[in-house]
Amino acid sequence: MPNKxxxxxxxxxxxxxxxxxxxxxxxxxxxxDLATGFTMAMPSxxxxxxxxxxxxLVRTEKQGRVRTCTLEPLALAAVEQxxxxxxxxxxxxxDRLARFLDAQEQxx
Length: 108
Fold this sequence. Notes:
The chain contains five helices and three strands.
């Protein structure tokens, strides 16, 4: 699991790849459609798609001359779960600190 999380965070560290993931949240799209709006050559854009695919965030399928990308929601769910677990641990520490400070205040 950590390796998949690492790959997902590495892939999402780039703003172009995050934009692709956001766009794919609306549904599948061709690579050509996804590349519209980015000022880079198609080979450079395809590298971004390959990174997302390698991280398991995106699946691609070629039909004829069109390559279509689809978001892999389970991969995003794993990232979300990792974040939720970190948030719970942090919240628990803050709760313990608050109880400690309340106890200190009552002692004074």
